[in-house]
Amino acid sequence: MAAEMAAGGAVHAGRMEGARGRSAYRLSQDRSDHCLAVRRARARVCVHLRAWANAGLGGGTRGGIPDRRCSDRVRRLDRVALPLVVFYCGYSLLYLASVHAKSAPVRAYYTSVHPLLRLALSTAILVDRDILITDTGRQPDDYGRMGLPENLHSRHYRGADGWVHAVDLRMTGRGTLKNWGVQLYFWSMGFDTKRHVGTADHLHVELN
Question: Which of 55, 58, 121, 191 meets the CB 3.0–4.6 Å disulfide criterion with 186?
Answer without folding.
Answer: 191
